[in-house]
Amino acid sequence: MAITTFLFDLDGTLMDSDALHHAAFNTILARWDRHIDVDYYKTHIMGASNAMIFGHLFPGMPAEQYIPLAEEKESLFRSQLDQHVAPTPGIERLLEHIARIGGRSAVVTNAPRANAELMLKATGLAGRFDALVIGDELERAKPDPLPYLTGLQLLGGTAAQAVAFEDSSSGVKAASSAGIWTFGMLGGLDEARLRAAGAHAVIRDFNGADLWDKIAPQG
């Protein structure tokens, strides 16, 4: 069956933003003389919603207390984001393919809407997707499959005709649990961790041979 529906995570998938997020979290945590290392970031933060992240960082803290911290962290992240950030290699080629075949695409992210819109603008990708799904605006965010199921619904697609791209365990679990063929994006996590989360294949960027074999088979 032809692949006509394309669903993309944002942070770490369409752009490399992990270092900025990591630094912003540590700026906040420094007030408590705390620091998170890269392994903690990869295990507990990548791909998670702010409710999950701050609930883990500050167990027992009421939401009304950590929500302002989360908002401050996101503001710090946005202030560090350059006016132009290079998107992941191969995305222009893939978007041209989607347009050529009459396919549809969506960004599916746990990032706050303000972050998502700014990141898409900074990478030059604003307006290039048919829909933007924000996990925290739904009843359940990733790793629940609901954001991906919502993306399919908005695009009028089916899981059998779709592929997803994710760089985190949380995101891979969400997409694969929705029944979507999921490409794990190498960067933050290695191949073993991406496959353990449910990735069907692993690529470094959107020029990966396994991707093009899947969406544009020859012969």
TrEMBL record:
Pfam families named in the record: HAD_2 (PF13419)
The protein's name: HAD-superfamily hydrolase
Family membership noted in the UniProt record: Belongs to the HAD-like hydrolase superfamily. CbbY/CbbZ/Gph/YieH family.
Transmembrane segments: none
Organism annotation: Herbaspirillum frisingense GSF30
Cofactor dependence: Mg(2+)
Keywords: Carbohydrate metabolism, Hydrolase, Magnesium, Metal-binding
Coiled-coil region list: none
GO molecular function: hydrolase activity; metal ion binding
InterPro entries cross-referenced by the UniProt entry: Beta-PGM-like, HAD-like_sf, HAD-SF_hydro_IA, HAD_2, HAD_sf, PGP-like_dom2
